[in-house]
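Retry 2 of 3 after timeout on previous attempt. Resubmitting structure tokens to design endpoint.
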């Protein structure tokens, strides 16, 4: 009888342990016979995004493909060794354009076209936005490209040429994108997938300078230029604001035989 009691106790304990393991949510601890409850963490349902909330699904790298009919690339044409008979009306400024163009491998005629739009060859031109000088440099841009005196014609032109060289390198020689960057900043061109930004001012800027540049690079244009106008008849007016349509730009031949762009 004494042996039977312990045996019955062991059997009862074993049955209790089995029942504890089979009870919902309970199991035996590895180190003793105390039954412990296992708390299963609740799985919260996924929260729906609030209306209007944007989620980043994937990233995208833009690749640059020049648009059909883009302006001539500087990588495909030789750099002009001079202004090709064109003048700003100031021989010193003409020389600065040619020197800076050669030094930075930027077509002097492209710099000439930009300058005509930006300042009409006026060295003291000042825009309402604060752009200054012949190439209409903003103070930050001037400092960025090493200009210490923004009103000095030589430094101003050199700063503009360096900036154009930077933009042409950045946009693989695409003149349209470089011009858009000169007007709106390179960040805007990259923001819109390496295309001309959808700003009416920038698109008009690219159109105007593109037309000037194409005009003076056309060999037949010089032959058709009007001749014999007096110097005071081609005095440059202030540039037509970019928010207004520019009626016409043509070239004229000065009494000394040189050519000059004229806005009307």
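Retry 2 succeeded. Sequence:
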């Amino acid at each position: 009888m004494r042996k039977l009691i312990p045996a019955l106790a062991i059997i009862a304990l074993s049955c209790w342990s089995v029942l504890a393991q089979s009870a919902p949510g309970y199991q035996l601890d590895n180190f003793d016979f105390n039954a412990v409850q296992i708390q299963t963490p609740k799985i919260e349902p996924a929260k729906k995004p609030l209306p209007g909330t944007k989620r980043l699904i994937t990233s995208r790298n833009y690749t640059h493909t020049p648009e059909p009919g883009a302006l001539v690339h500087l990588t495909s044409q030789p750099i002009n060794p001079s202004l090709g008979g064109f003048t700003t009306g100031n021989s010193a400024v003409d020389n600065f354009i040619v020197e800076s163009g050669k030094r930075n491998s930027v077509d002097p005629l492209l710099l000439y076209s930009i300058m005509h739009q930006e300042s009409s060859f006026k060295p003291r031109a000042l825009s309402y936005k604060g752009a200054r000088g012949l190439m209409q440099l903003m103070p930050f841009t001037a400092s960025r490209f090493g200009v210490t005196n923004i009103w000095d014609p030589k430094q101003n032109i050199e700063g503009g040429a360096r900036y154009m060289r930077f933009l042409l390198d950045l946009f693989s020689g695409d003149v349209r994108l470089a011009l858009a960057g000169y007007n709106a900043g390179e960040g805007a061109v990259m923001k819109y997938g390496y295309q001309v930004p959808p700003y009416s001012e920038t698109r008009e800027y690219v159109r105007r300078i593109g037309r000037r540049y194409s005009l003076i690079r056309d060999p037949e244009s010089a032959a058709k230029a009007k001749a014999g106008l007096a110097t005071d008849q081609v005095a440059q007016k202030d540039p037509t604001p970019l928010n207004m349509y520019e009626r016409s730009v043509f070239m004229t031949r000065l009494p000394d035989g040189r050519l000059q762009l004229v806005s009307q």
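Attempt log closed. The chain has nine helices and five strands.
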